Amino acid sequence: MRVEHVGKNIDVTEFIKSYTEHKLERLKPYIKDIDVADDSVQVRVTYTFEKHRHRNRVDIDVYFNTPGGGVIHAWEESNDLYSAIDFVIDEVERQLVRLKSRRKEEARRIARAEKMKQITPQEESIERPLIVQEPMPLEKPLSVEDAMMLLEETGAFFLPFRNSETGEINVIYRKKAGNYGLITPGV
């Protein structure tokens, strides 16, 4: 973990640097849990003193130089510089815990998706013909009245049949009005 200290309107002493770096050691286990190499993390600590308000502000930016990347930013203001450092470290720690849980959940989601891919067989796209030839449902010839009664019994919308009187294939169908229609060839 590379740490850069920046002071604005304040002299950053070696004691302030060592105090902050000692507190930053608390974050190393969280960084390891996120699967980020320790040397690919850069931390910028900015100390600001506002003269007119007599307030100390500490900003911490944590940069992850990894393919997943990311930045964590936290800041805190206080009259005491050291308490501001403590509070901002606590906030960075909370954000690292949230980042760890999000990354673990993402890894679980990806693992579930991979598992589902393995379980469900990939259907090959089978080319089906546009028109499929099927046999006649009724081989024996029927009269128009018999075909109408069979249509009522089955509840179908239409019924192709061979007319016993003419020997031709006819279609009887149910109309929306409740009556029936008959399609005969050549009419």
Main sheet attributes: strand count, strand direction, barrel closure:
4 strands, mixed
Give start-end ranges of low-pLDDT stretches: none
Number of H- or I-type helical stretches:
4
Mean pLDDT: 88
Identify the overall geometry. Answer: rod-shaped
- Kindly name the structural category: alpha+beta
Strand content: 25-35%
Radius of gyration over alpha carbons? Answer: 40 Å
Strand order of the largest sheet: 1-2-3-4
Helicity, as a percent range: 25-40%
Quote the distance from N terminus to C terminus. Answer: 90 Å
Task: Please report the total strand number as a whole number.
Answer: 7
Order of helices and strands: EHHEEEHHEEE
Short description:
The chain contains four helices and seven strands. The model has no long low-confidence stretch (mean pLDDT 88).
Describe the structure in your own words.
The chain has 187 residues and is α+β, with helices and mostly antiparallel strands. 36% of the residues lie in helices and 27% in strands. It is built from four helices and seven strands; from the N terminus they run E-H-H-E-E-E-H-H-E-E-E. It has helices at residues 14-24, 28-33, 81-119, 144-154, and strands at 2-8, 41-50, 55-64, 71-78, 158-162, 169-174, 180-183. It has a four-stranded mixed sheet with strand order 1-2-3-4, with helices on one face. Strand 5 and strand 6 form a beta hairpin. The radius of gyration is 40 Å and the shape is rod-shaped. It starts with a strand and ends with a strand. The relative contact order is 0.09.
